[in-house]
Write a structure and sequence with these properties.
About 40% of the residues lie in helices and about 20% in strands. It is α/β, with parallel strands linked by helices. Bound molecules: 5'-O-[(R)-(carboxyoxy)(hydroxy)phosphoryl]adenosine (KG4) and zinc ion. The site of 5'-O-[(R)-(carboxyoxy)(hydroxy)phosphoryl]adenosine has 19 residues, from helix 5 and helix 6.
Length: about 325
């Protein structure tokens, strides 16, 4: 089965083609960073307008790269939620119209599930595993026991880790989006130079909290002025506080769940310090860690096409009442 995937949940317009036997045939991502960087964050209305401009050319490019016209596509998958509602509606309405016009089945994919299963684009991972989904909008832990068995174990009570990186970068005057810049600047810094808080919450808790860390950075910066502190050391110390909690809770949760594998997904899982530490500490703890390549950590449509291929192959097409949703559907 060959599936066209479309993703527009935030600020990337993406289209991809995934084939059950040939694998990933095309993966196109059109970023809106230049539009939003002027404002230091994603402006929802501008994001919707950019998706409208980009969705047709991006889908055309993906189909051309895959050498697949309408006749070779067996189904269409589109992100239905969670995300920015205006952005989601652009991709969803386009995909619905295309599915109707082409007479193909449509699957409305959950963005979080798509991220979690993105690892299968590159490697097989035996079930069960614990998945850490860590991005600009989410920081959650799941137990994944099968393609249809995804259980929410805990998540952030306030800011997502990526949001914390982005806000920290803004406070440090490093621009937007902040995660990748902090990652780069931190490589020249000392992660133990400054002590920022780690919110571990209740013993054994799989929940997260990063808003205190951000406030602590703001307070630190207001008293650091004129003291000649190095921005590299601040970035490295801030990043270490985030990474400590992400690694500790992921491996701790896997141990408590009696699971020997952990999978990372989402934009923040591209962070080089996080990748190195979770692998090193995972191997000491006897937990096998699986990381998607960096390009598949951030938003893409390849993961949507793959999930669509699985669900459509299992006869799980969405009906004409498919609608977009803004909030996560996983019960707390
Ligand atoms: O998964 P994603 O592309 O979109 C969402 O669904 O949110 O994740 C974007 C987030 C942003 O907050 C960005 O700053 C962060 O991922 N990010 C990183 C890195 N690359 C992207 N954070 C830390 N280190 C990185 N290398
Ligand atoms: Zn995402």
């Amino acid at each position: 089965m060959r599936v066209l995937g479309i993703e527009s949940s935030c600020d990337d317009t993406a289209a991809a083609v995934y084939d059950s036997s040939a694998g990933l045939l095309a993966n196109i991502v059109s970023s809106q960073v230049p539009v939003h960087s002027l404002y230091g964050g994603v402006v929802p209305e501008l994001a919707s307008r950019e998706h409208i401009r980009s969705v047709v050319p991006v889908v055309e490019r993906a189909l051309a790269e895959a050498g697949s016209g309408r006749e070779k596509i067996d189904g269409i998958a589109v992100t239905a939620g969670p995300g920015l509602i205006g952005s989601l509606l652009v991709g969803l309405c386009f995909a619905k119209s295309l599915a109707y016009a082409w007479g193909k089945p449509l699957y409305g994919a959950d963005h979080l599930e798509a991220h979690i299963f993105s690892i299968f684009l590159e490697q097989e991972v035996p079930f069960p595993f614990v998945a850490l989904l860590v991005s600009g909008g989410h920081t959650s832990l799941f137990r994944v026991s099968g393609w249809e068995e995804v259980f929410f174990l805990g998540g952030t009570l306030d800011d997502a880790a990526g949001e914390a990186f982005d806000k920290a970068a803004k406070l440090l005057g490093l621009g937007y989006p902040g995660g990748a810049v902090i990652d780069r600047v931190a490589q020249e810094g000392d992660p133990g130079r400054f002590a920022f808080p780690r919110a571990w919450l209740a013993p054994g808790s799989a929940d997260f909290s990063f808003s205190g860390l951000k406030t602590s950075l703001r307070v630190f910066l207001s008293s650091a002025e004129g003291r000649g502190v190095r921005i590299e050391d601040i970035a490295a110390s801030f990043q270490e506080a985030v990474v400590d909690v992400l690694v500790g809770k992921t491996l701790g949760t896997a141990r408590r769940e009696g699971v020997l594998r952990a999978v990372l997904a989402g934009g923040v899982s591209a962070n080089s310090r996080l990748r190195r530490r979770v692998e090193e500490e995972g191997s000491i703890a006897g937990i096998e860690v699986h990381l998607p390549s960096k390009a598949l950590c951030t938003d893409n449509a390849a993961m949507v096409a793959l999930l669509g291929e699985r669900r459509l192959s299992a006869g799980r097409a969405s009906g004409p009442d498919l609608n977009a949703y803004a909030a996560s559907r996983f019960p707390r």
